[in-house]
């Protein structure tokens, strides 16, 4: 696996992979890799495809009171994991390469970025859209892979890529989970033993509510019960919302796919999760 930190060398490395007649798949990450990231690498490894992973802790998507400074950085361990998983090239640029002196461009995707984490973390999705646009332009892949755990992020990226005619396929894979159901996340390492034990209340509450709503139960009743169970577990809720799976409009049409999306804090750690709500057959 090649590890590249400068843009001119990246262009050369990508050209060499293309010269083999290969398609290019990109898996963007912020490092601190876990089994969820490895599932993305596995999904990207298709016949005739070369896999490029990126590691870049993007300062533009962190707010002033968020955890940029303490976000876990494990470059050597991450590199070993990617090489063992069959990644062909690791793009790991420093901040000054991604945002050189004088950098002044910001990408904002309205609509799908306005509520939920967009409201809770002002400017976050501008930072996400800007860095992903840069990564897509730098690597120029045929396909890029993202996890559905960051469901709103995936919607923002898909909207941006469609609106700006990138001509790149954006693929998602289901949320990868621990054996007890907690969504895999680089931030799980912040949880102490007691918080980790209680954190499983988040996927459990979402699952119970999603099943109730999918069977035709009253959505507000199901959401209220989920909020109460999360509060009892010690979570401080940012939001728990039922949305259309495509547009992220609140409520959504029961005949269409919907999602329950949540963000909540356990101690000082902010966790997000989401589950699908099956459409209700109209009869």
From TrEMBL:
Positions that bind beta-alanine: 61
Annotated positions binding (R)-pantoate: 61, 153
Main localization of the protein described in the UniProt heading: cytoplasm
The reaction(s) this protein catalyses: (R)-pantoate + beta-alanine + ATP = (R)-pantothenate + AMP + diphosphate + H(+)
Pfam families: Pantoate_ligase
GO MF entries: pantoate-beta-alanine ligase activity
UniProt-annotated location(s): Cytoplasm
InterPro entries assigned to the protein according to its UniProt record, in alphabetical order: Pantoate_ligase, Pantoate_ligase_C, Rossmann-like_a/b/a_fold
Protein's pathway: Cofactor biosynthesis; (R)-pantothenate biosynthesis; (R)-pantothenate from (R)-pantoate and beta-alanine: step 1/1
Entry coiled-coil feature ranges: none
Binding site for ATP: 30-37, 147-150, 184-187
EC number: 6.3.2.1
Keywords: ATP-binding, Cytoplasm, Ligase, Nucleotide-binding, Pantothenate biosynthesis
Record family assignment: Belongs to the pantothenate synthetase family.
Oligomer and partners: Homodimer.
Miscellaneous section: The reaction proceeds by a bi uni uni bi ping pong mechanism.
Protein name: Pantothenate synthetase
Organism: Sphingomonas oligophenolica
Gene that encodes the chain: panC
């Amino acid at each position: 696996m090649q590890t590249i930190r400068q843009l001119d060398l990246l262009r050369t490395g990508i050209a060499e992979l293309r010269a083999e007649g290969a398609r290019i798949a990109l898996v963007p990450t912020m490092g601190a890799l876990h089994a969820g990231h490895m599932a993305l690498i596995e999904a990207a490894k298709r016949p005739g495809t070369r896999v490029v992973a990126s590691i870049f802790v993007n300062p533009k998507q962190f707010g002033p009171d968020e955890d940029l400074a303490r976000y876990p950085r494990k470059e050597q361990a991450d590199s070993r994991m990617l090489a063992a998983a069959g990644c062909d090239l690791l793009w790991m640029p420093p901040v000054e390469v991604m945002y050189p002196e004088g950098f002044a461009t910001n990408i904002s995707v309205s609509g799908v970025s306005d509520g939920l984490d967009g409201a809770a973390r002002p400017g976050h999705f501008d930072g996400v859209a800007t860095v992903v646009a840069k990564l897509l332009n730098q690597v120029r892949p045929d396909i890029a892979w993202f996890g559905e755990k960051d469901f709103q992020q995936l919607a923002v990226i898909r909207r941006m890529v469609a609106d700006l005619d990138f001509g790149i396929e954006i693929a998602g894979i289901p949320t990868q989970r621990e054996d007890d159901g907690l969504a895999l996340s680089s931030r799980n390492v912040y949880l102490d033993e007691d918080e980790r034990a209680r954190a499983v209340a988040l996927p459990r509450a979402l699952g119970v509510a999603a099943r109730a709503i999918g069977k035709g139960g009253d959505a507000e009743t199901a959401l209220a019960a989920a909020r109460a169970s999360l509060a009892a577990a010690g979570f401080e809720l940012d939001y728990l919302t039922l949305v259309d799976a495509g547009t992220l409009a609140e409520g959504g049409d029961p005949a269409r796919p919907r999602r329950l999306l949540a963000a909540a804090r356990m101690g000082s750690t902010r966790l997000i999760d989401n589950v699908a709500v099956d459409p209700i057959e109209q009869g």
